[in-house]
């Protein structure tokens, strides 16, 4: 198949492209605006693979999207392009509305126009997969059941509200126009190439350098953690085997509190590179909680596991060790990112999901 994938130079998108080229015969047309969090390096060998084409374009540019569909004739769409950093959405929600809501609308309309003109067999096989987050469901209490595909929406931040809106658009285009859309919602992702503003890379790099480790509130906020390569495999299962109109809740069954995550990072670094000054837990500092900080996110992936024959192979400890070791081995990359994009800024701890 020829797959049109948006946001392919982002954290999750690049993992999906690497998986597609390593594990399938599909071809990929990668649309990416190349904003601050995009990294062409994260494509690894895909940068030079003839089955991959990178197009620098904005999904909110309707003329460009229509032209790309006509020129490249995709069989499937995987829509991952999004603004995803919760703290940034609080400081500047406009970019999130433009990309996540307007951009998704533009892409759906371009896909609908293209799909309507396909021959009957290709029209029947076409799929539009919209990739989303569990944050659209709001917050769970300590004893609440985990989110499922049927959980009611209750977004609490500009980021999650913008993703909820785009989820609703994808479903509306299925019910109103018949466009064969699919939606997936996932938990916090982590792994290689994650931009150094999310919790695990922020803490890893700060602990490595002996800096303070700021943790929101008392660190009890709970998240389910999914290794990004496991998520990429699940997303490919969705685009290959998913049913139009269906929703897939993708989780790892690996809940951890933020404080437990920070302590696990410190422990792994202490084993790999002991600090003469003492265990790195001494660097933990609790800071004022951010506005609207949801207490707990967790997904019950039972239906998705049964429908797709997929389960997350990595447990958290194994995935975390692989991730930390990757950052230790790729110092030049993250030092370059910090130098060019975060000059004069302080990186704080955040717990936004996905991307």
Give, in order, the helices and strands: EHEEHEHHHEHEEHEEHEEHEHHH
- How is the main sheet built? 7 strands, parallel
Query: What would you say the CATH architecture of the domain at 2-193 and 227-254 and 295-314 is?
Result: 3-Layer(aba) Sandwich
Shape: globular
CATH level 1 name of the domain at 2-193 and 227-254 and 295-314: Alpha Beta
Q: Specify the structural class.
A: alpha/beta
CATH superfamily of the domain at 2-193 and 227-254 and 295-314, called what? NAD(P)-binding Rossmann-like Domain
Mean pLDDT: 94
Tell me the distance between the termini: 24 Å
Measured by DSSP, the beta-strand proportion falls in 15-25%
**Number of extended strands:** 12
Radius of gyration: 20 Å
**Low-confidence segments:** 343-355
Count of alpha and pi helical runs: 12
| Secondary structure: helix percent | 40-55%
* The CATH topology of the domain at 2-193 and 227-254 and 295-314: Rossmann fold
Strand order in the sheet with the most strands: 3-2-1-4-5-6-10
């Amino acid at each position: 198949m020829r797959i049109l994938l948006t946001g392919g130079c982002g954290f999750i998108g690049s993992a999906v492209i690497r998986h597609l080229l390593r594990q399938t015969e599909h071809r990929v047309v990668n649309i990416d605006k190349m904003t601050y969090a995009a990294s062409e390096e994260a494509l690894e060998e895909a940068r030079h693979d003839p089955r991959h084409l990178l197009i620098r374009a904005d999904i909110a540019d309707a003329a460009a999207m229509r032209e790309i569909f006509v020129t490249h004739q995709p069989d499937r769409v995987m829509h991952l392009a999004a603004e995803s950093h919760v703290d940034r959405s609080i400081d500047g929600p406009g970019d999130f509305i433009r990309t996540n809501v307007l951009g998704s609308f533009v892409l759906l309309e371009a896909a609908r126009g293209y799909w309507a003109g396909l021959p009957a067999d290709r029209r029947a096989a076409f799929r539009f997969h919209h990739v989303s987050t569990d944050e659209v469901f709001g917050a769970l209490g300590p004893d609440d059941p985990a989110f499922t595909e049927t959980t009611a929406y209750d977004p609490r931040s500009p980021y999650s509200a913008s993703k909820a809106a785009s989820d609703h658009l994808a479903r509306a285009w299925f019910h109103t126009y018949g466009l064969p859309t699919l939606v997936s919602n996932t938990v916090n992702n982590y792994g290689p190439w994650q931009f150094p503003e999310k919790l695990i890379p922020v803490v890893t790099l700060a602990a490595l350098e002996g800096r303070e480790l700021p943790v929101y509130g008392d660190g009890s906020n709970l998240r389910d953690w999914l290794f990004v390569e496991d998520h990429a495999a699940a997303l490919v299962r969705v685009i290959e085997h998913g049913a139009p109109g269906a929703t897939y809740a993708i989780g790892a069954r690996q809940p951890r509190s933020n404080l437990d995550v920070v302590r696990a990072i410190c422990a792994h670094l202490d084993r790999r590179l002991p600090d003469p000054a003492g265990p790195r837990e001494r660097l933990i500092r609790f800071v004022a909680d951010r506005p609207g900080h949801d207490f707990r996110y967790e997904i019950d992936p039972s239906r998705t596991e049964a429908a797709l024959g997929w389960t997350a192979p990595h447990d958290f400890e194994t995935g975390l060790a692989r991730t930390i070791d990757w950052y230790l081995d790729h110092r030049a990359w993250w030092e370059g990112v910090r130098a060019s994009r975060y000059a004069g800024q302080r990186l704080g701890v955040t717990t936004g999901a996905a991307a």
